[in-house]
Amino acid sequence: MSLKIEVLGPSCARCHALENNVRQAVQQLGLNAEIEYVTNLQEMLKRLRQYRTMVTPVLAVNGRVLSRGRVPSVPEIVQMLTTYLAEEVAKET
Fold first, then answer.
1. N or C: which end of the chain has fewer CB within 10 A?
2. Domain limits at 45?
């Protein structure tokens, strides 16, 4: 399963921290994921509207928002991704 992970935010310290935590979590899980850090204001606002939120930072996986308005720790992101993947596998069976 391919994963597209988006971090949306205005390039602030919290947003950078989220991106860093996501990268660490992906590495810990050994996932092959495309991680996109969206800081361009117009693109970020477009995606925030799409996800129906105006709070940053946002963590989305394959178009599904997993976190908004906070910086989850690496273990929290590992748990989020593990749960997300388990749910996706369950849908396929």
1. C
2. 3-92
